[in-house]
Write a structure and sequence with these properties.
Layout: E1 11-14, E2 23-30, E3 35-38, E4 43-48, E5 58-63, E6 66-67, E7 71-74, E8 82-83, E9 85-89, E10 95-99
Length: 108
């Protein structure tokens, strides 16, 4: 199982599949399944029986996870430029995530 370098809140672009070219923010990361849930992408409708949380029941929209290999992180400040994620150890000993293409630190 690979180390998942994407985090919740990262702005990503879908690079393959039926949602190719769309962008969104990561809502949830599922490292055991090597998958992420992206806001506004891959939404399905589910019928829900009445329960304590939803006394009326009804039809809800639900995010479905997509494989992490299908998304690439968007660089801040650059329009539609994607990159891979790397790590750099700073002089004070802390680890920081950086864009592989520019070596700039990722702000979350």
């Amino acid at each position: 199982m690979a180390n998942l370098k994407l985090k919740k809140g990262d702005q990503v672009k879908i690079i393959t599949g039926s949602f190719k070219g769309k962008t969104g923010k990561i809502v949830a990361v599922l490292p055991k399944e090597n998958a992420v849930k992206v806001e506004g992408i891959n939404i399905i409708k589910r019928h829900v029986k009445p329960n304590m949380l939803q006394p009326q029941g009804g039809i809800i929209d639900k995010h479905v996870a997509i494989d992490a290999s299908k998304v690439a992180i968007l660089q801040t400040g650059k329009k539609d430029t994607t990159s891979r994620v790397g790590y750099v150890v700073k002089k004070d000993g802390t680890k920081a995530r950086v864009f592989k293409t520019t070596n700039k630190e990722i702000d979350v």
